[in-house]
What does this fold into?
Amino acid sequence: MRYDSITEAIGNTPLVRIDPAVHGLRHIDLYAKLELLNPFGSVKDRAAWNMARPGLPAAVAHGSQVVELSSGNTAKALAVIAGMHGLPFKSVTNRMRIPEIKDLLLLLGADIEELPGQSECLDPSNTEDPLTLFHRELSGPGSNYLHTDQYFNPRNTEAHTAGTGPEIVKDLDGCAPDWFIACVGTAGSSTGVARVLREHDPRVRVVGLVAAKSDFIPGIRTWDEVHEVGLFDPATYDTVEAVSSDEAIEGMLALARRCGILAGPTGGAAYHGTVRHLRDIDAELTARQESGEEVIRQSAVFIVCDRIESYLSYTKRRRPDLFRQPPRKNTLADLTESEIAAAPAVGTPEARQWIERDRPLVVDLRSPFAYAALHIEGAINIVDELFDELVRGGLPFSTRQPVLLVCPVGEQSARYAALLTRMGHPDVRSLSGGVIAWRDAGAPLVRD
Amino acid sequence: MAVAVPSSPEPLTLEPRLEPPLASLLGAGNLLPSLVDALGSPLNVLLPEQIAENAARFRAAYRTHRLGGRVYFAHKANRSSALLRRLAATDAAVDVASLGELQHALGAGFTPDRIMATGPKDRAFLWLAARTGVTVNADSAGELDELAALVRAHHLARIPVLVRLSAFDGPGARVLTRPSRFGTPAAALDGLLTTLERHADALELTGVGYHLDTTSTEEKARALEGCIRALDACRSRGLRPRVVDIGGGFGVNYLAHGAEWERYTSELTAAVLGRRPPLTWRGHGYGLRNDGGTLRGALALYPAHRPVAGAGYLDALLALPAPSFGGRPLATLLLENLYDLCTEPGRALVDQCGAVLARVLEVRRTDSGEPLVRLAMKADDAGLEEHGVLVDPVLIGRDGVRAAPGDGPAAGVYLAGSLCLEADLITRRMVSLPRLPRPGDLLAFANTAGYCMDFQTSRAQRQPVARTVAAWQEEGSWHWCLDEQYWPITRPGGEP
It folds into this structure.
């Protein structure tokens, strides 16, 4: 396949059957619409391109900034599209909760603005929520923006009535599936696809998935938040159900480990919500078949929104058990309390004499910034996390070289003194009370 | 269509979170009715022991992170003498924002080294601060000039000063923050330091600080990093500052059950969208509105259920990684740069410290059938509505017995004050009570000591202002005295 522009590669994603051995449904064929194979990595490529396209010639002529309220995939796609057209892009967001996406957006050249958190002291006379201010800025005099407005722009839905929906029907040999299950984010994909499928066959049943209220699944709104979405129409869905982040991760693991589909948690939530919803229906079909009735096979389609790679820290925070770490050598965690208590230590006056007499190597474990601000004269700076790495490989200095370890209050230096002693160093000592005690004793600190 | 939330015939409860001392006070039998009989309605009751307990919790959070420095109570949260006098007997300090508060703090037993003057200051306030030698947290270069002139003109000792900074920038994504009227932009630090150097004979810079009006720890983390950078700039110019003042805003958890709060806010959304009967007086949306089926606006309510609040919030903030310092925890950053930490909790230090009591005068239905309870108080006597704090009051019978679920059919009522004014509603939310109140019953607005007690109270229509009493437990029973008569050594019967 040869294209003139990467944007031509948007859409026409595969519909892949999930192995029944994985989902366990006996009478329902389950298909995943692999939106993660879009060129910028998600289903939002379609909407972003469709929303931005008509405004691009004028934006290029005026040098407008492309802006969108997005903390995820829409921003990613728009950042790429804006960059391709030489335009700046700004994403305004409540909170970027996925660090990888935030870094990726910065890497792509996007400008990110995070809106302020909720006010601690309520000012009832202030009716201007940050979003109102955002919209006012967009429409203010002299403003020069291309605002794609994903939560209200009908071209978001249209990207799916023209693309995603008809593609599914075509791949199912001209039939609509019996079930369509989608996570509700901007509601663009679920509304667009549902519209096409229902036009084809009004009996299609549509399940919308939202996050439980206090939970967070990237790309999915919660029960309350869906009402803030202009494209959200409750009539689109036969039922709306909640999924949890735990279920989303379980679904993600099933798709990645057993189906070879490297979906993110949004796709995982769609898969999990789909199987959960259909399990009872499938059981009912089994019962009817066992009672001698003839049962017609059904089909269901869910959307796999994006890829797994951006959600490693999201998953790690919720499921540390999935990231097995090899056992480490020479770590502080191995030390016993009595070893730490027995670590050689010196107070400030004694330490000053020792420095004068034997010139021990003074190692300051604080951050470079703190070290640069004030330190003991002649000390070298090896920040704790680096020191931690160094000792893992063995003693970082000769056993003939006496060492004085310095940290803020003498706790960490005592631990490392104990560790280095255990590793065979004969004369390593910790500065008792740390650099704070040193200062409080009136001993000199220098700044280079 | 399964989205519509079924309408609930039961009023939605928002049960207040009560720690044992406050719960015990509200269950102390005849004590509260007899106090209201004697001293009138409304009546403020305060628990001075609780503020000492709260200060100890903050101190414990400091200890966890090995940090030194003081906890300054933001006096503006409550006017009480008893609370201040009790606090003076701990190791905590006080943050005063007016001449009157400074006089009050000095009179309560705080020595000048435990007082910090903040906020907008007039000449008299600055004078007394300089004369007594309290730390002045300066808002601007102009204020430093004025203070230095006072010190020189009257040959006073050098005054310790902190400067309040605002508008911090940082790497990566831009974090927007509500603009503040207070403080000097961090970018203008150089000019401020030049001013301080010019006044080196009169003023001694001890640190910098910020106060952000936000619940977001990320914004605060960024400001704290900005302060560390600013202090380093001070050091590079030969100044020797040693504290970072991170202000207040640690929050209070008002509700016993997170699930009730979640259900309430969801149902409020549904009510605003017309999917269930209103939960509020005349369909008030608390900032939300229905725009053709789509929800617009922002919920203007205090997040009444906050699992991480007060000292716990401080602990979490200090553990947060500092993004521009290689992800080291903020506490480590403070510690290894040899800085002490100052905090100025207001609401959080008076959490669970008291209640406003009011007598039920009348229970009736409005013409449109709304159950309305009129109380012997004004809305400004308990600023819950003003501060957007939604929580049910506690109903106490004429006999002093606290009403419990099952005492009768649960009742959803609106609460009106005694002003001849349509707007004098104590709550626009329909509150939930275990039974319908009767005239003579008491309603206790629990946990109102922080900003929701005497902050806004007025003498409108020559109506009485609440009297305040301090109460404490000793040998298993409750004792009380008038707020102005309380001292930490007060014994039952007034014996010293």
About this structure: The CA atoms of residues 251 and 309 of chain B lie 5 Å apart. The two ends of chain B are 70 Å apart (CA to CA).
